[in-house]
Amino acid sequence: MKIIRILLAAALLSLLSACSPKTTQLPADALVLRSPDTQLELKFAVVDGVPQYALSRAGEAVILPSRLGYTLIGRDALTDGFTLTESSFNSLDETWEPVWGEEAAIRNHYNEMLVRLQQPSGVAMNVRFRLYDDGLGFRYEFPQENKLTYFKVAEEQTEFVLPGDPVAWWISGDYDTQEYSYTRSRISEIPRLNAIPRPYNASQTEISPRAVQTSLQLKTDSGLYVNLHEARVLDYPTANLLLKEDNRTFQIHLTPDAEGVKGRLQAPCVSPWRTVQVCTSATAVLASRLILNLNDPCVLDDVSWIHPTKYMGVWWEMITGKTHWSYTSDFPSVQLGVTDYAHAKPHGHHGANNENVRRYIDFAAENGFDALLIEGWNEGWEDWFGCQKDFVFDFVTPYPDFDLPALNAYAHSKGLRLIMHHESSSSTVNYERWMERAYELMNLYGYDAVKSGYVGDIIPYGEHHYSQPLINHYHHAVVEAAKHHIMVNAHEAVRPTGLCRTWPNMIGNESAMGNEFMAAVPPGHTATLPFTRLQGGPMDFTPGIFEQDMAITAPGQEGRMRHTICNQLGLYVTFYSPLQMAADLPENYARFMDAFQFIRDVAVDWDKSLYLAAEPGEFIVTARHPKMATLNAGRWSGKSSVWEFVHPDGREHDVWYVGGITGEDARDVSVKLDFLQPGLRYEATIYADAPDADYETKPQAYTITKRTVDAATVLDLHMARSGGFAVSLREL
Ligand code: NOJ
Ligand code: CA
User: What is the domain extent for residue 147?
Assistant: First the structure.
């Protein structure tokens, strides 16, 4: 019996090695690069002409020897036949200050190795590796002196060979959408679980049951948190990851353009950074700034016009179906410049009408918000969805019942700005036609932020949301907006890869399932996103839904959100975004003004963030310290919070916020307040799930308590299923 087992094991081993041509070790003369703390070790070698790298942490393999290179269209592959012509080493230790962020200063500390590779034909391909204490970034660089100038990519052949079968938090690979709910499974289970049909999305292109998206969070059996993603994706398609038949090798799978080309490159050029974040704890994943550090410094000289923003919106009422984006039901279809809206009969459910907008302006201004988003203000919404039509909107013509100049003037008189909305309906050609005029209109009336959207299949026909031409479109929109001093929050655009460091007017993105999907998504989604989607940049998740029952918000509608009120409060601290929405309706907040107080008080820009406890999909507890200068100076309106932050003696009050969220399970946590300044006393206002709160049965049960605390205090807090808590701490 024992012999049979040994024979079987030997047969299995030989089968496995037949699937995978790689060795588990690079040759002894491989080049070696270590992280500043020497824990991470990167090795590189050209083995029989094939460039390969491997990564380990404290002697433990993280990535086994893995191939690098490209296959090209119509020319020899960049996968073999290479010799190493030169290697050079470098290092950097700098600190930079983000315009907005989770902390006032970010340390960018790495050791670097550049390897120059050449094929006999004279084709040159270099690979630059940067090794940080929290992970690896590497990219391809094609120098100008090269036998390769213009080339088309068939596929990037970069591999990540994993030593085991880690747990992964993944969503399906797709060329068009990230609006999927996460699955937690071993990577070997991905092909089976991913074969299950996916829920409908307005634009989706499946790749394979073996394909998943980045950022992909992994956890090894030894407890390492490994995250695969990419940084600085510019003029290059978005990567998915394809799991090979051996069930342990991921290979880059790029998004093709309409002609099937996966990148049209011209030397000199660089690829995005391929990233392997390696952390020993889940909280370290949340604290990692690997992706931002791999992006270029800010290119804007004047950033004074960029400001973190807390906003409300004439929005949730359309999402729930209480009102509509459209104005009339008079026409079977509408056409820009042809349809006579002025004489059309309103259907009576248009949300963005003057009276309703004024009602929101009043409420938002009274409660200290900076801005108000209004969707459905412009002509064209009767036909925006599902027609894949080129000329849907012109982005400059309001509906007859939306008095754009008067509403802006009214908002400004109350210290509030309006946020513009540009739904491109994925006709990027049309959006680009109108973009300059649309931004000029915004400048004329004092809008300084736009929410853009890309719902539906892309025009130019055949392009994908994540193909190279679209990456260039999203970037163009941000660059042009910066010239007009406009901040951009793009929905359904590609998930971010840290470009907000370079272009801090890229103030938000959706690019995942946000709150508008939460009636359909199991709890645990929000405790997953900071490990995945948020690794590349902030998300406009639109938290703050207090009324879970759609039928109450929008009579006649169905559905229930799956969270407690305190879960929503916890999101303002656990999810970092310089753009935070209070997404619910004024009339819903009016029923819970005591809990709404936390949203009024909480800051949106921080000089310090502490990740106190976390596990992907299960729970997150975060403490953050606001940028006091921002608060005291106020943002553009000078009324950023209802709190006074300066003592009569001129000294600043110290302030902290703590938030927690859970997934499917209830949880008790003890939060040590040892981050508070020693010797000072603070008033803690604690918003907590009531003992009987539960997202299914009692989502609106909460308690609010006040007590005096100091650095020695430990708060014992209960979080219900899909619950949470929020604490404001204000120096007495
Ligand atoms: C989808 C966006 O995510 C949502 O927020 C928006 O309201 C609709 N598109 C309409 O643009
Ligand atoms: Ca969306």
Answer: 2-293
